[in-house]
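Changelog note: in this version the structure field was regenerated for every chain. One regenerated record is shown below for reference.
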Amino acid sequence: MPDLTPGDKAAAVDSLRSAVMRLGRRLKHQRVDESLSPTEMSVLATLARCGSATPGELARKEHVQPPSMTRIVALLEAKGLVRLEPHPDDRRQKVVSQTEAAEAMLVESRRKRNAWLAELADGLDEDEWAKLFAAAPVLEKLAHL
């Protein structure tokens, strides 16, 4: 691969940002439960990916203020999607865990979004599939930095 100039990198970042934002907006419309906000869905996905956590840990992972996370957790608990349990080491804290209902909803949500994305990707040629296959781990890394 040739050396990229700062201008080349800036153009690539701009193109990536635009494409990811458009695709993300379109994926958000493929929701299973319209009553959940994107933030609530993100919290459930974080619990599924990382396991149980305190509200403070969730706030850090989701980049929101702790009082906001407390409200989100309360809404999710009222919907039966998370449960709060005593922290094993600190009685002042609670641990948030997803329920089976949340797990089932996330599985269905992933299935629906994957099916939609797979249908879009059916229009790619072999070279584009190879590039997508190579780019996926890099995009995953960027998403978690």
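Spot check on this record: The helical segments are 6-28, 38-50, 55-62, 66-78, 100-121, 126-143. The first strand starts at residue 82 and ends at 86.
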